Amino acid sequence: MLFRFSLYGALKNQRYYDPFLILAFREKGLSFFQIGILIGFREVVSNVFEVPSGAAADLYGRRRAMILAFSAYIMSFVTFALSNSLAPLFGGMFFFGLGEAFRSGTHKAIIFDWLRIEGRSDEKTKVYGYTRSWSQMGSAISVLIAGALVFYRGNFTDIFWFSIIPYALNIINFFGYPAQLDGDRKSRVSLKAVFILLGKALKQLRQSAPLRRLNLESMGFEGMYKACKDYLQPILKQTAIAIPLLLAFDAEKRTALLVAAVYFALYFLSSLASRNSHKIADWRGSDDGAARFLWWINGVVFAMLIPSLWFGLYPAIILLFVALAVLENFWRPVLISRFNAHSTPDMTATVLSIESQSKSAATVVLAPLLGWTVDLVGGFWPIGVAGTVIAVAIIVTPTKKCKLPQIL
Questions:
Q1: Which residues contact 37 (CB under 8 A, 6 or more apart)?
Q2: How would you label 286-298 residue by residue, b for 16+ Cβ within 10 Å and e otherwise?
Q3: Of 25, 80, 142, 243, which is least packed with CB atoms within 10 Å of its CB?
Q4: 3-state secondary structure of 180
């Protein structure tokens, strides 16, 4: 099963559009604020369907939820490829958000359930980090393919069509998962049962101070990262135009080559980070100790971004964005392991879906706000300011006083 779990991650991260998403939308004539609105809308859709999808997966079959998720992704790719204006792109974001809702939390629950069945629950950080490392390795491979596609096709839109192929293959992969990993599902669909389980999960969340703290941290760390990570793309395009190399090629082809090189390094290092995240937990004595250490590093990186973005120090900016990606991949296995330690097995997918909902809620606010600010000031330095403020706020907030927003 470790092979199938790793194959899932490698195929799932064949997102050929991912390193060029903002550039593809800019190619369609969108402003950064409009792109931020689209990203925010995607997160709203994920929020609406997130928790019910997790509960439905726990009750009626996690494999079915994954197949539905990847079918929705394929619909989104078709819509993105065919759309040339803002309005229909909302349809693509709807399908993408639906896919995110039914996928997030569900496959992690499958992995943790398999570890429980195999009597290996104490290896959750190591095993999840290992499978996530293959996801990042898949991303490293995909960016080389994506760079080649953009280079030879001469545009950013065609990559949406090619993204369909690995996602269809992953649907085939799910049919090889054993039935016992569907969980203790019910034979008949009942919305009442979904909301009963949801109510139990929310009650568990409200009564657990550690779970409330974990959701708050997820909103700050993951929400900010999701809102800012794609700004590396226009920065790379500016860099490709500024450096006097490969002048025989046009701007798009030069950008494709630079994006492929940088994102390959980013994903390769992220893969190593994910695989070795458990070592930080061992070094710091616990997952909680590792998380606090990573928060400090996160704050330092964002603080260094402020002057780098202000003065246009492109090499430093690229290195710092790569550092943020590596940090996120040290962070994610540690965070998921902490959630698993504070939730019951029958509600793992539901609790993790609530985590994803919290993260999405933060991105809904941050993505349009960052886009509007970047358009307003004509520069990217507000990203560094926002990330630094969030990191400092989390570090200085006492654990016992952390409360979730009223959305939960």
A1: 367, 368, 371
A2: ebbebbebbbebb
A3: 243
A4: helix
Contact 288, 338 (CB under 8 A): yes
* Residue 125 pLDDT greater than 80, yes or no: no
H/E segment holding residue 122: none
Give the HSE-up count for residue 38: Cα atoms under 13 Å, Cβ half-sphere.
24
Indicate the pTM of the whole model: 0.75
Give the pLDDT score at 404: 40
3-state helix, strand, coil in the chain (%, to 5): 85, 0, 15
d(CA 185, CA 193): 11
User: How many CA atoms lie less than 13 Å away from 146 in the CB half-sphere?
Assistant: 34
Contact indicator for 277, 329 with CB cutoff of 8 Å: yes
In angstroms, rounded to a whole number, what is the distance separating the alpha carbons of residues 128 and 114? 11
As to burial, measured by CB atoms within 10 angstroms (0-12 exposed, 13-18 middle, 19+ buried), residue 101 is buried
What percent of the chain shows pLDDT beyond 70?
83
Where residue 267 falls among pLDDT bands split at 50, 70, 90? confident
What gap in Å lies between CA 103 and CA 25, rounded to an integer? 24
- C-alpha pair distances (Å), 35 with each of 18, 23, 187, 227, 356: 14, 10, 42, 11, 21
